[in-house]
Design a protein that fits this description.
The chain is built from 5 helices and 14 strands. The protein is α+β, with helices and mostly antiparallel strands. The two termini are 14 Å apart.
Length: 243
């Protein structure tokens, strides 16, 4: 597996940020996931690891870090441990209703892209997206791999309120708002099932490195899945992929 010029810097008194080149590439994400698995084996249980597009944050849940000492150890570990990551990736199929009531920016985005709303829905729902990071809001997935011909600028004026489950486009990314919040993404649909549950053993069932595929559903199917999600009986389709 390819190595990258990583840098380390202090992230408060109890954190260290390891950064990879500032590029959105699956190879970089794979290297981040590989090194995260190594750190999970090498570091103690009082450490929290938070991967993102181009970084891993190491957070101590105990005492402060000795930055210079740990920096040297981490760089050496990255340099010498070239074990290939063998992991099981998961593809999650998530329902999305693109009705006009939910896709409040759908027609405008399609017009700007010089295509019909149906064409935009077809392209968006036929692609698979990689989960490059989870953040901003608990359970908010940053999904890379948006086809270039539907890349869309963020809205110039963010909304003060975006609905829970809203599916949006922004730049080279797509994603789902796991709860109501302000936001500047272009909203093209809504996913009726909860993405984040603070009371669950694993609050967000999706992990960094997984893949997402959206499936277009009718309004009637949306209402059914919403009820199923609220009572906890909806199980998103899960497909195990080759490593």
């Amino acid at each position: 597996m390819k190595s990258y010029p990583i840098t380390l810097k202090e992230f408060g008194r109890k954190g260290i940020l390891i950064e990879w080149p500032n590029e959105v590439e699956e190879a970089i994400l794979d290297d981040i996931i590989r090194f995260k698995s190594i750190l999970e084996e090498e570091l103690n249980d009082n450490i929290e690891l938070v991967p993102a597009y181009n970084s891993i944050a190491i957070i101590s849940n105990n005492g402060d870090f000795e930055f210079e000492k740990l920096k040297k150890e981490l760089l050496q570990l990255y340099k010498t441990n070239k074990a290939t990551l063998i992991t099981q990736r998961t593809l999650w199929k998530l329902p999305v209703c693109y009705d006009a009531e939910f896709g409040i920016d759908l027609e405008e985005v399609a017009f700007n892209l010089k295509m019909t709303s149906s064409e935009l829905i077809e392209i968006h729902s036929s692609n698979e997206y990689r989960v490059f990071g989870i953040g901003f809001l608990p359970g908010f997935m940053y999904l890379g791999g948006l086809p270039k011909h539907i890349e869309t600028k963020r809205k110039e004026t963010p909304r003060l309120k975006v609905a829970k489950g809203a599916v949006g486009l922004a730049g080279k990314q797509t994603g789902i708002y796991p709860q109501e919040s302000p936001g500047g993404w272009n909203i093209i649909g809504n996913c009726p099932i909860p993405i984040f549950n603070a009371n669950a053993e694993k609050p967000c069932f999706v992990s960094v490195g997984d893949k997402i595929k959206f499936e277009s559903i009718t309004r009637a199917e949306y209402e059914l899945h919403k009820i199923e999600g609220e009572v906890g009986i909806y199980k998103p389709e899960k497909i195990l992929l080759d490593a």
